[in-house]
Every structure is written in structure tokens, then in C-alpha cells.
Design brief:
The complex is a heterodimer. Chain A is mainly α. Chain A folds into three domains: 137 residues, Serine Threonine Protein Phosphatase 5, Tetratricopeptide repeat, CATH 1.25.40; 43 residues; 95 residues, Serine Threonine Protein Phosphatase 5, Tetratricopeptide repeat (Alpha Horseshoe), CATH 1.25.40. In chain A, helix 4 runs antiparallel to helix 5 and helix 9 packs antiparallel against helix 10. Classes of the chains: A mainly alpha, B alpha/beta. Chains A and B meet through helix 6, helix 8, helix 10, helix 11 and helix 12 of A and strand 1, helix 1 and helix 5 of B.
């Protein structure tokens, strides 16, 4: 992106000439000069004064310039900050510039769009940096910011699909965390986010498989964690809980199998569920299928 | 059955792809654990009128490695009264000298009548796992009802075997043959 600053300068010079007659726009011009001289903090002060003034707060050029300055401030100071306020301000400014240019008169509109696309990519990339059980809320925030930009600049953007990807990724991450720690909090979060993804699109083998496996593993864990000394009058309680969980897993893994019959791990999971449910006929059917798939 | 773990992260176009394959654990046979807990639990509900010397032996007749492992976990450092619990695996009735509990795997169910005649009156709790075997002499027969492991109790068979039946076990049984 280093060349972009020069591109901006080429396009910003005509703005300075056109707006020279006005007091507030002279603040914009001054901000452009300071930006060119790499005096970004001073440029920031002036451009903020300009966009707060009645003369310029409806000026798409002023807001565009604010976006340029804040983007540069982000690149200079906050590239490793996933919560960067400079980046947020740049985003808000470019979007404001676009919205003020309802008549589509801004000759630099394409650069505004490119900048917004760049900022959207940064938000998206930062999702991965905070994809953990502690910082996941930041993940969601950055995903929302990515979506907010895309909504404005990309009519073809499939927001539902994007949300599905984000929720299923976060849900899977919690599922992994739960399997490693057996924490109920992580389990609840895994269910929450996997179900959010499922509510958006219930017709993927991925989401059905993950939800099915989550329930199935819980069913297994109930018996696995059961004390070997459990009194026989308490044993049915554990069995009831485990069977109930296994029954919850079944429709999801059946659907996953329907959507992707070649996924061996789903077939193995189905064999596991039927074994857990003491259905030897179905268990043998899926076990045989799994063994045949392994031979291929 | 094995526990299936998916460490499966969705594909993200701009991020590093982290797609982990399922990890299969090999030792989570839930049904074997339930049976093992039942088998050990039965020691608290029956009285062995004979067989009170030496170790308290539980014999598995037939192949079932998972059940043997789970029984091993269940009876580890445990005893019945003063008798230390001992675990054995045999393939024929002839190999069994003395035992307090005999679990016959479904594959070896045809050996039930031989077991009944060999251990008649010798205080051996015979446990089977095939439909109808409680009616033909097994004291305990594992069955499946409503997707759960349950058991039938044949009190008459217990008496013939030389076992006293404790009061609480009838309530736990899916059905009782008097």
C-alpha cells in the first residue's frame, strides 16, 4: 500500500485549487499540505475542525481527506492494534464521504472504494488474530465492521454467508476448546455459535457434522466420566442422560451424511451413535459402510 | 465405541486455514463400561453361599477385550468381603476351575447349558447377554430396552446356583423370573 499515499496526493491537489476560496475548506487544504509533509497529527487536528464546521461537515472531499489521514495514522501507529480507533475513524470517514456524494460527483470515488475495501480486508484479517476463547468478542466486532463496509461498497456481498462462516468458525473453535478442557462454559458457547450458524444455513455438512459430533462426544463423556463405583440404582440416570444426548446427535449426523455421503468420519460417527444407543443392527450397517470406505 | 473428536475449523478466505482432522480415541467403549459397572455392582446384591475361600474370581468366557479392560478398571484394588477380586478370560468351560461370576459373551452363549451343569450348586453367578437366556437358566441376562442396557433376573436360577438374592436387586431388574 506504500504507493497509495502518492496516488492520493495526485488526486487531492485539484481539490485544494477548487476549494481555495473558503475559510473552512482552507482548513482542508492545510490538512492536505500537512498530510503531504507527513505531519499527520497536525493534519488530524485541522481535518477534524473542518468536518465539524457547518461549512464542511457535508463536504464529501473533507470526509474523504479525513479518511485518508486516519488511514495513514493507522498504518503509521496501529497496524498491530486489532481495536485500532484510527482505522475505525478512517472507515467512518470514507463511508460518510460516499454517502455525501449522492450525486456521484467525486472523481476520486474509486479510490475511496478501494480504501474501504482495503480496510474491510484488514478487519477480516484481524478476525484470525483474536480467534480464541478469550478475545472472541473482538473477532465478532471486527466481523461486524467488515460487514458494515461490504454492505456499502459491494452489492454482491453475501452477508448471510459471511455471518455463517464467522459463527461456524467461532463455534468450532469453542468446540475444540471444550474437547480439550471439558469446560461447560466453552460447551455452551460452542452450542450458541454453532446454532447461530445453523440458523443461517442448516444445509451444510460442516455445521451438521460439528453439532452432531458435539452432542455425540457429550454422550460418550457422560459414561466416560461416570465413576466405576456408581451404585446400580444410579446407573440408569447416567444412561438416560447419555442416550438423550446421543438421540440429539443423530439427526445432525444423518443430515451430514445425506449432504456428504463420502465423509468417512460422519459414517464412523453414526456407527458410534448407534452403538451408544444399543442399536446393533444399525451399528453393524454403518460399521460395515465405514470399513468398506476405508478399503477404497 | 470410540469417541469422535472433530477439531475442524471453517475455511476462511483471508485468514490462515486451520483444518484439523478428526482425532479418534480408541478406548471409549461406553457399553462395556456400563456392563462392567453392572457386573461389579452385582457383587453387592448376591450372597455366595459357597466359594468363600481364595480370590473372588470373575471370568469372562469368550472374546471381549473392551469388557475385560473395563472390568479391570472397575475391580482394581477391590474385594468382595475378605476376598480379593481376580479377573480371568477363558474360551472354554473346561478351562475354568473355579469362579464366582461367569460372564458368557453372546458368541459363547451356546455354552450356557454346559456351564449350568458344571457349576450347579457351586455358587456361580452366571451372566449372559442374549435374548431368552434368563428363561433357560442364566441368573442375569443383559438386555436392551429403550436404547439402554438393562438386565433380567432369574431368581429360581440363582437359588439353584447356590446364591442368595439380595432384596434391592429386583427393583433394578427390567424383569424378574421367580
Amino acid at each position: 500500500m506504500s504507493g497509495l499515499k502518492h496516488i492520493w496526493l495526485i488526486f487531492l491537489l485539484p481539490i485544494m485549487v477548487v476549494q481555495n476560496a473558503f475559510a473552512q475548506t482552507s482548513k482542508v487544504n492545510k490538512a492536505i499540505e500537512l498530510y503531504s509533509a507527513k505531519k499527520l497529527d497536525s493534519a488530524k487536528v485541522l481535518i477534524n475542525e473542518a468536518v465539524q464546521s457547518p461549512e464542511s461537515n457535508k463536504d464529501y472531499n473533507a470526509w474523504m481527506m479525513r479518511g485518508v489521514i486516519y488511514k495513514e495514522l493507522y498504518k503509521t501507529n496501529e497496524t498491530n492494534n486489532v481495536t485500532s480507533p484510527y482505522r475505525d475513524s478512517a472507515t467512518v470517514s470514507f463511508i460518510q464521504s460516499l454517502q455525501l456524494d449522492a450525486a456521484n460527483k467525486n472523481p476520486q470515488k474509486d479510490l475511496v472504494l478501494k480504501s474501504l475495501n482495503y480496510l474491510a480486508s484488514l478487519y477480516h484479517n484481524d478476525i484470525n488474530k483474536t480467534l480464541d476463547t478469550v478475545n472472541y468478542q473482538q473477532c465478532l466486532l471486527n466481523a461486524e465492521k467488515h460487514k458494515a463496509i461490504k454492505r456499502v461498497i459491494d452489492p454482491a456481498f453475501n452477508e448471510q454467508k459471511y455471518s455463517y462462516d464467522v459463527y461456524s468458525t467461532i463455534g468450532s473453535m469453542f468446540e475444540k476448546g471444550f474437547e480439550q478442557s471439558m469446560s461447560k462454559t466453552l460447551l455452551d458457547l460452542a452450542k450458541t455459535y454453532l446454532m447461530k450458524a445453523y440458523d443461517i444455513n442448516s444445509n451444510t455438512d460442516f455445521i451438521n457434522k460439528n453439532i452432531g459430533v458435539l452432542y455425540y462426544n457429550q454422550a460418550v463423556d457422560i459414561i466416560k466420566k461416570m465413576d466405576y463405583d456408581v451404585p446400580l440404582d444410579k446407573l440408569p440416570i447416567y444412561q438416560d442422560q447419555s442416550v438423550a444426548m446421543g438421540k440429539q446427535a443423530l439427526p445432525y449426523l444423518m443430515k451430514a451424511n445425506e449432504l456428504n455421503p463420502s465423509d468417512k468420519s460422519v459414517v464412523e460417527g453414526l456407527a458410534g451413535i448407534y452403538y451408544l444407543l444399543n442399536d446393533s443392527e444399525k451399528y453393524n450397517e454403518y460399521k460395515k459402510k465405514f470399513e468398506e470406505m476405508n478399503k477404497q | 465405541m470410540r469417541k469422535l473428536i472433530f477439531l475442524f475449523i471453517a475455511f476462511f478466505t483471508l485468514s490462515a486455514d486451520v483444518v484439523e482432522r478428526p482425532v479418534l480415541q480408541q478406548k471409549d467403549d461406553t457399553q462395556s463400561k456400563i456392563k462392567a459397572v453392572y457386573i461389579y455392582g452385582f457383587t453387592k446384591y448376591f450372597e455366595w453361599t459357597n466359594n468363600k475361600e481364595g480370590n473372588f474370581t470373575i471370568t469372562v468366557l469368550g472374546e471381549n477385550t473392551n469388557l475385560l479392560n473395563e472390568l479391570g478398571n472397575t475391580v482394581k484394588n477391590k474385594s468382595v468381603g475378605a476376598q480379593k477380586i481376580d479377573l480371568k478370560n477363558q474360551q472354554t468351560i473346561g478351562e475354568i476351575d473355579q469362579t464366582s461370576i461367569l460372564y458368557i459373551t453372546p458368541d459363547k452363549s451356546y455354552l450356557l447349558s454346559e456351564a449350568l451343569s458344571k457349576f450347579k450348586g457351586k455358587s456361580v453367578l452366571i451372566i449372559t447377554e442374549k435374548q431368552g437366556l434368563a428363561k433357560v437358566g442364566a441368573t442375569i441376562n443383559f438386555i436392551v430396552e429403550e436404547n439402554k442396557q438393562k438386565f433380567e433376573l432369574n431368581k429360581l436360577a440363582a437359588t439353584r446356583a447356590g446364591l442368595n438374592v439380595g432384596s434391592g436387586i429386583e427393583k433394578l431388574a427390567a424383569s424378574v423370573i421367580n
